Model the fold of this input.
Amino acid sequence: MRDLTDLRREILRDVLKCSYCAMCEWVCPTLDVGNGNRIYGPRGRINLIVSYFREGSENGVLKESIYTCLICMACTQQCPAGINIAEDIRKFRTFLTQ
Done:
């Protein structure tokens, strides 16, 4: 089993490269910009992951956002920073279940 400290470090190393440029958002099939809630898009999910690791708080919104991601990799392909967003979300799901 993978060490959770290493997994946390691995995820954070990647997501902290995010400059919140929004290039990933326009391709996300789960983001509904019309409702004004960006937590169901790549930027929102990255922000929730970072907040979770910094504050350690888990709530229903976090899980709902993370588990509604389709892991379709559309955001990953659009990211100018080279963040593997889909893979980070998959790894974070693993982290949450440990």
Remarks:
- DSSP finds five helices and no strands in the chain.
- The mean pLDDT is 92.
- The chain has one domain: 4-97.
- The radius of gyration is 13 Å.
